[in-house]
Amino acid sequence: MTRNLTLIRGLAVAGAAGLLLTGCGGNEPPVPGENGTNNPDGGGSSGSSSYGVMAEWDGCEALGDNAAFQEFMGLQDWGANGLQSSDIPGGVDGEAFNCTANMATVAVYTKQGRDFTGDANIDVGVAPWESDSEATENFGERVDQLKTALETGGTEYADVQEGEIEGDWDESYYHVGTSSTRFVFSAIVRTGDIVFYVFTDYTNDPAAADGADPVYPFTDADYSDWVLSDYMPTTFADLLAKKESGL
């Protein structure tokens, strides 16, 4: 199996449109066993690179079927296609294993017998590498792609927040903002030889938009704080524990 980047999916950049970012290209770590899996830049206490251990991981299995999002957001379903799981290089992002959901139902607002559904797109991915230097390069390329897409995508955002993420990340970047119809959240982090990202967006609360009491059990600020301060560090720690145990 060779590792070739296809496309990096940026749901958070384009909302329901699912903008596709073109691939980073270049880095192709060796197949585990071909050239060994020792990582000269450091790849965990086991001495093996993260790619060497995680290369064949199934996305949703490794990421707990995105159950944390379902619990926090109160999701009613995962959308018509359900959860979509991929390994490397089987998904849209050829460098990462992913667990994604499109048009998952957050909540339904009913007015005069008509239902207005609030939906969410969720894309969580992990790109393990053979070395810290490869992961560093990949992190920079992904952040550059995200910023370019945000600048050229034609969508105007209000209440924008962006910058580094507090925590024990070696490198990090996040961007959140609200368009006329959706709240958009993007975060990319790197620690050691692993790049980890969360791209999500969801419909602005349909009840609040109508001047009624919100039907979402969270606010945009609640959501951002939860993903950045709770979900990402907890999930990353869990991934490292699975790496040590070989999943």
Question: Which structural traits does this protein have?
Answer:
alpha+beta; two-stranded antiparallel sheet; 247 residues; 7-stranded antiparallel beta sheet; 7 helices; globular; single chain; disordered N terminus; 29% helix
Walk me through the topology.
Elements: E1 7-9, H1 11-14, E2 20-22, H2 50-54, H3 59-62, H4 67-73, E3 84-86, E4 97-111, E5 114-128, H5 132-152, E6 158-163, E7 171-178, E8 182-191, E9 194-203, H6 206-209, H7 220-245
Antiparallel strand pairs: 1-2, 3-4, 4-5, 5-9, 6-7, 7-8, 8-9
Short note summarizing the structure:
This is Lipoprotein. Residues 27-50 are annotated as: Disordered. The protein has 247 residues and is an alpha+beta fold.
Q: Can you characterise this structure?
A:
It is a single chain. This protein is of the alpha+beta class. The protein has one domain (41-245). The protein is 29% helix and 30% strand. It is built from 7 helices and 9 strands, in the order βαβαααβββαββββαα. It has helices at residues 11-14, 50-54, 59-62, 67-73, 132-152, 206-209, 220-245, and strands spanning 7-9, 20-22, 84-86, 97-111, 114-128, 158-163, 171-178, 182-191, 194-203. It has a 7-stranded antiparallel sheet. It has a two-stranded antiparallel ribbon with strand order 1-2. It starts with 6 loop residues before the first strand and ends with a helix. Mean pLDDT is 85; it is low at 1-46.
